[in-house]
Amino acid sequence: AHVRRESRHVLADEQTEDLEAAQLVSKVESSIKVFFDAKNPEQLIPLCRQAERVGPMIRSHYSAKPVHEGSVREIRSLQPLTLDDRGNFWAAVVLLDSGRNKNLLLEIMDSGEVRVDWETLVCHQPMDWDQFAVQRPAGTSMDFRVYAEQDNFHSHEFSNADQWTCFRLTTLAGDETLFGYVPAGDPMEKQLLSALQRNRGRKLAVILRLIVPEGLKSRRGVVIEKISCERWIYVDPPDSGS
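Below the sequence we write its predicted structure tokens.
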């Protein structure tokens, strides 16, 4: 009888867990639908992660275009995700009635509310990557979401391979390729090379702080000032003082 009682408890616990999981999935799905039903930036901002920080970006991004390309037709996949040992993230693939698929990352907040990571949804950049590559605004540091691969393109100020380590930089939506340089022996060099090694040589999705130094002759070169994030999503808000 004791064993049967224990089994009943275990079964009840499992049923409770199943129910809680089903309720969570339902909540995530309804939050996704509400997000894609938002009609303007002011409706969208409270539904996003780190809303205070990304709010101005959202207003600027949609200043001349509609917020969404359609409502949710179907949630094609939904799965839990662990980032930096935190299991409160979800990844979703959503089909809109416009026919477009959207990849979403969501966070379950401590309050139980679900928030969408807007920056990764639109792959937010501080300015258009191709414009940055062509215009090369000097002296301004900007954080870009890039794919980084090790390279050996050394020219102009960066021609000494003993002094500079080279990384080929591309983006999700841009056509232009730039080359980012880190001083050889700098901790950033080790961090990027070991991250690439962990990624088995595949290109690395990172947020890098880039600058075109004043008077630079290299047409494709930029200096990597900082690895702002080792992935495209800020799990914690970036340090505003950095």
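The mean pLDDT is 90.
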